Amino acid sequence: MAEKDEFLVVPKLEHRRLSSLYSDDEILDDDGEAASDPANRVRHSWKDYGLSTLQDSVYLPSLGRITPSARKEDPSPPLSPVIRQGWLDKNPPQGSLIYQRRWVKLDADYLRYFDSEKDIYSKRIIPTSSITSISNVGEQKFEVVTHNRTFAFRAESDLERSEWVSVIQDAVGDHRSSGDVGAHSLGPSSVPPTPEMQGYLELRGLRSKLYVVVSGDKVFLYKNLEDYKLGIGITSIEMNVGNVKDTDRRSFDLITPYRIFSFAAESDQLKEQWVEAMRESVAEALSNYEVAKKIWSEESNRFCADCRATMPEWAAINLCVVFCKRCAGEHRGLGPSISKVRSLKMDKKVWTEELIQLFRVLGNERANLFWAANVPPSEDLVPASCSDDRRRFIAAKYREGKYRRYHQLFGNQQELDNALCINVQSDDVLETLSLVFCGASVNCDTGNPEFPTTISLAQSFNQKLQVELLSQNRNTEVPRSEVGGPMDTVHYMAPPSITHNGFLFKTASMARPITERKSKEEFSRRWCTLNDGNFHYYESDKNATPNGGLKMKEIVCLAVNPPERHGYDYTFEIYSDSERLYLFGADSQESVKEWVKSITKSFIPASAEDLLNRDFERIGRLKYKDGLNLQSSRVGCFALVGSMLHTCFEDSGGEEVIHLRKLQELSIQQENEVLVLVERGRTLYIEGERKLDFLGWSAAIQQAARSSGDTLCQQQLTESDIPVIVDRCVDYITQCGLTSEGIYRKSGVNSKIAALLESFRRDARSVRLKEGEHQVDDVSNVLKRFFRDVEGGIFTSEASQDWLSTTGLTDETQKISQYQFLLGNLPRVNKATLRALVNHLYCIQCFADMNQMNLHNLAIVFGPTLFQTDGKDYNAGRVVEELIEHYVTVFNVNEQQLQKQLDEITVIIKVRENLNAKVPPSGSGDFICTVYLEEKKETAEQHVKIPATMIAAELTFEILDRRKISVRDKDYWCCFEVNEKDETERPLHYQEKVLPVLHSLGTDSYLVVKKHISMEAMLVYLASKVEVSKHGMMKFREERNLLGLGLGAGSFHDRYFILSSTSLRLYKEVRSNRPEKEWPVKNLRVYQGIRKKLRPPTCWGLTVVHENEKHEKPERQQWYLCCDTQADMREWFATFMSIQHEGSVWPADTMKVRANRTAPLDVRLGNVSLIPLRGSENEMRNSVAAFTADPLALFRNV
Fold it and tell me: Which residue range or ranges hold the PH domain (predicted)?
């Protein structure tokens, strides 16, 4: 099972809980072993311990630990070679006589042992420096004694034992003789490196917390703080193969190729610190110090050019200064046209030998003779300066040139250019730096026809450093001479150096999307040029005056059309920020590719250059908001590639990918021009700043999110790579049809099957299967027809014969192995789908006594369906039968999980049986219900026959017609669900089905038809709103503290709520950035009123019920909201109703609804005595008696 690779196994032995990550002698929660109770220690965070206390670890060695003084010398030394390794038996120190077989490794620094020779992560690490003695004990045994404990081992022979003892003694002796105690010693001379992060973390699979240390390029795990100080560790994780992934609230994963470590911190804030520390450790592990050591060889480059922090690791390759990480962030804010920021450790390809030599020749000290010649002491930076001070100083220094040493020729452009041409012939690069950043043009004309540019002139004199400096500043923006005014951060786009020209075919620009096909006659041939960030088109290549053009910074989107979309086979569209659309075509695909490549390179920023390597259909800039920051929009770059949306956000370190076919929800808020993308754990809002390109993006994304073909992998998928149509059908049949006799053998209504299948193919994500609306046999036939029609079949056309031939194998073990082999070779989606389907069929045959579908019957149905045959090949059925029969073995299923699934299905069946027993159907399949008019009293009750299709509006008019009540204008009659126990009521939506509501009513609930006195005010309020959303403070109380928000269950608390079109979010206060809780609006049921027993602070309250049926067991949560005024409560309730019913709160034409309802129900209900479903026990007993005496007695008053 996958769990073995992904989680830490916790086996049980003699009532003692051991962990596979712990050593055998580490019994969790063992009072005899631990010096103190770990539970008392873990309450402290890593900040609770001073560095002077925590630096006493004897485990973290000098190798792999990078101190400021050591980084320059040997930042990532190799691991010590293994001196000896082999199998030994180990005896736990608790006194057990049972030895465990362990793979033991010894190197110069550590003695480690593992479960097997293939394991990467050890069970225990013993530093050789902590070993005090090694001694022989009895036959073939020896003991390794450390400062605080003894480890017992046993070899195969006395000779092998002697060899182990000898090599361990030599390793310990070498340590002592060399005096290399370093971090392994507890002596006063020890000065161990400081860890970047340390403290207790929970690790999935362990009950006790581990003490975790992040240091340099490694993460170390200890049992507790005492073990850390003693240096006896569990294992170490090399971060050069690690990746840190944020999961849920307090949890995160450290993923390696060998194991996933799932950690949980004590708080969200601590989790963020741990994630940042581990990601920096990964970056440290992947760093290359070769360039840094060369740059740091110049003494002044060891200190930041701006704040004097030590060992700076970043540089501006055009400004020729080296700076620290904190200053690098402010340099990036200047934009690449002012400061080209590069890393000394990670951007190795940028650092040519000439560029490195240039930085060594100049150095920060000489460079600051120009850049920082006039810095007032009051404005100078120090390493501890805040971000605002850094931003102001760096902008003034490099964008404005406020502190630079002005050249004596400043202001005289011609003389500056002449001086530059003369100076590049020498090796004085500091003078060149001064000339360039005081206004001399790198691209000026030298006056020498043979060497027309300053770069070519410098090359002719073999001045390589001058060439490098000039090349890095060809497009640099010279500092402005004016000073003053606000210094807001402005991002500049470097003038592109892309050049391209050629003939294209162009149509007239337009201000609306292109929906029709453009013929060749509508295109005009134009000569087009791209140069210096400007795109121009001319009548011909002979004309000097362009017909028109675009600046690259005006382009917001480029779309590549599919072939043969227009008269010219290959076309692309350009969208400008002035709401204009330009269509261009070419004769060849290669020509379009070259133009698209050149144009996108010119308007996509350098930070998103990775997107240009994709074969995109659409690329551009869009505004967006995400779930953590909804207050302000940010600009990101997006590229649509098939069904993948590649993104580069301004606050992310790299490219992110959104799988559009796996989205949980995709919707458009047309009134706001917002595209909402909901994926697991994240919601992204893409905003349409310009209507034209937003329409193009929304249409393209919606199309990409749909199924794109007939194969399984082209369908809309769940997170588990199962087609949504399969997942929805299987789930519905499991919930509603598992006990249906002859399931999958009976036919449904062909027209309904075809319509439902078409809905799934059009957009499976939007289809919701509901009991009462969809019949089980229709859904089962949709699933069968889908598998019969899917291209290639679930077994694939290439491998289907191999599956069929496997049935001929006589050896059962060989047959199962062959099935497992074929399963492993299936494509990912096919494998996941087959597993889900066989699991479903296995569950069905487990209840064959109820549905009559045993193994053989299922095989008869699904064999020809899955193999897409005519049913004559008996082997198809045999494959399905054998896969179901050997499901646990073939699919490597956890039997406990499977049994849990079957138990849950049994519970579902029993619940449905009990529900059907409480609600007996009439002879026609309908139900009888007691409904009251205006109030609950005997004279106001009506007994109504409720068909499955009846909606609330029809029930309302049925009651009104019986009492012959005429409906006047602005009379808002409505059917209410009333709960006497909770003292709440809820108006049913006029289109809401009545029957499901009846099924959910408790004994204290009933239905009543009365006027909705607040409806008119609600409709007026909704009509006045531009967008249907609401936010504000309300008093909040949990139901028995079920939500885990830490609130007292007996009181109300002020909380800030935001109700949007998709979710209701709860914040601790208005300024909070992250919600404490978030619920989908569709899953909320809102009632007016709160029980007086709860002592609400006001009388205007709402009771909210959240029902989540997506979990294995349906969850129900209930909480209470109190508003300050009745109007405020009415507005919240109106907003809930409007969002849940897509703006249709009340029918536009009530008379039409009344006329279209079903004909008045015949009160003569045949010869079956029908009993009302609701009412008290006495009422129901009286009704039974009345029916017995006179079947029509209850309808005398109608």
Answer: 81-173, 194-283, 497-604, 1027-1141
CA distance linking residue 1137 with residue 568, whole number of Å: 50
pLDDT for 70 equals 35
pTM for this entry? 0.42
* Torsion angle defined by CA atoms of residues 1072, 1075, 1081 and 1083, in that order, rounded to the nearest 10 degrees: -160
1079 and 1103 co-located in one domain: yes
Tokens matching residue 808: 């001929």
Q: Are residues 730 and 854 in the same domain?
A: yes
Query: Has residue 50 been placed in a domain?
Result: no
Residues in the chain: 1198
The amino acid sitting at 373 is A
In a domain? residue 518: yes
Q: How many CA atoms lie within 13 A of 88 on its CB side?
A: 30
Identify the pLDDT of residue 532.
75
Cα–Cα distance, 795 to 866 (Å, whole number): 8
Residues 343 and 967: their CA atoms lie apart, in Å, by 77
pLDDT at 411: 83
Tracing tokens 């219900």 back to the chain, one arrives at 929
Residue 142 in domain? yes
Query: What are the residue ranges in the chain where pLDDT is below 50?
Result: 1-20, 22-78, 180-193, 482-496, 920-925, 1041-1044, 1111-1113, 1158-1198
Domain endpoint, select from 1122, 1147, 1172: 1147
Write the DSSP string, 575-634. Answer: EETTS-EEEEEESSHHHHHHHHHHHHHHHS-GGGGGGGGS--SEEEEEEEEETTEEEEEE
Q: Using DSSP bridges, classify how beta strands 629-641 and 927-933 pair: parallel, antiparallel or unpaired.
A: unpaired
**How many folded domains does the chain comprise?**
7
What residue spans of 112-259 are helical by DSSP H? 158-178, 225-230
- Among 1140, 1147, 1160, 1174, which residue's Cα sits nearest to residue 955? 1160
Query: Buried b vs exposed e over 532-550: b needs ≥16 C-beta within 10 Å?
Result: ebbbbbbeeeeeeebeeeb
CATH number at residue 394: 1.10.220.150
Could you tell me if 433 and 368 are in contact, meaning their C-beta atoms sit under 8 angstroms apart? no
